[in-house]
Amino acid sequence: METNWAADHLQTIRTLMERSALYRRALAPIMTFAGTLGVLAAVFGCLLKIDSPRPFILYWMAVGIVAFSGSLLLVRRQALKDAEAFWSPPTRRVAHALMPPLFSGFVIGVVLHVHVATADPPLGRVLSMLWLPVGWVVLYGCAMCAAGFFTPRGLRIFGWAFILGGCGLFAVGIPDWVSRLYFAHGIMGGFFGALHLAYGAYLYLTEKGKNAA
Amino acid sequence: MNPEPFLQLDRVIHEKGRLAIMSMLAASPELSFTELRDTLEMTDGNLTTHIRTLQEAGYISISKSYQNNRPLTTCSLTAPGRKAFAGYIGLLEEILQQTKPR
């Protein structure tokens, strides 16, 4: 009987230690915000016919920066509301996990933006409007997977959806029947918009009572 | 069975609520009062009492600051607290080892 008691205590300690290291901010509002922004940006990108390499890169990097800043503000708002530190140890861990792939994506975008002007035009278009969006999708998936080790649930699967989807698109390339404009913005809107919205909806439905931003 | 490890268990840590607080703090450099309260589902009064006991034993330290003009209370394990917690876990493992079928 005493063995059970000691084993139960050790199990409780292990569970609490694991829970203590988890990121506790509600992700649903952040995902919904990022998804809405992604869908709107894709629609506007198509409407504004942003289909040349440099404006495309610049446009989507600006959208990424707005999404990142907005997400940070939402996290800060939640922390203030809960009377908790914004830059708490779990937040630091998640940020450290996110940074390498996100930073790589940012640098690749900047480098391509600089060099695509002097590249052969067809090559520049393929690089910036196929390889770059798909590369961003895969890198973002890696970031979500890494952050998923410090969040309660689902984020790693969400990350894998990006990685598998991105790799699949690498294999398929741009189909002949679709225009480059719609394909490139479609990838960005589909992954960074629709997929975020779907995950946000899933979190809203399964995390009731925790999602007030 | 040798009852000694059981008798050596630190009574301050052994209480369920205080053990939970110590476990949470052992895995994180610091935690706010609200994080502890919400995760452990304790009342403010209950948590305050346990924290005071642990603080008096020298196991945790409390720091009070302000974040956006709102008070922010954070708790962290002290060095003696970390040592006592490690000792407590060691004793639990010893009890388990003693009662394992050979």
Task: Describe it.
The complex is a heterodimer of chains A (213) and B (102). With 213 residues, chain A is mainly α. Chain A contains 7 helices and no strands. In chain A, α2 (28-47) runs antiparallel to α7 (180-206) and α4 runs antiparallel to α5 (121-148). The longest helix of chain A is centred in the N-terminal third of the chain and has 29 residues, at 53-81. The N and C termini of chain A lie far apart (46 Å). The mean pLDDT of chain A is 87. Chain B has a single domain, classed as Arc Repressor Mutant, subunit A. Chain B has 6 helices and 3 strands; from the N terminus they run αααβααββα. A 3-stranded antiparallel β-sheet of chain B has the order 1-3-2. The radius of gyration of chain B is 16 Å and the shape is elongated. The model of chain B has no long low-confidence stretch (mean pLDDT 87). The chains are: A mainly alpha (213), B alpha+beta (102). The interface between A and B is medium-sized, with 24 and 33 residues.
Major sheet characteristics of chain B: 3 strands, antiparallel
Average per-residue pLDDT of chain A, rounded, comes to: 87
User: CA-to-CA gap between the ends of chain A?
Assistant: 46 Å
Order of helices and strands of chain A: HHHHHHH
- Using the alpha-carbon principal axes, give the shape of chain B: elongated
Helix/strand class of chain A: mainly alpha
Beta-strand portion of chain A reads under 5%
Distance between the termini of chain B: 13 Å
* Low-confidence sequence ranges of chain A: none
Brief account:
The complex is a heterodimer of chains A (213) and B (102). By secondary structure, chain A is an all-alpha fold. Chain A has one domain.
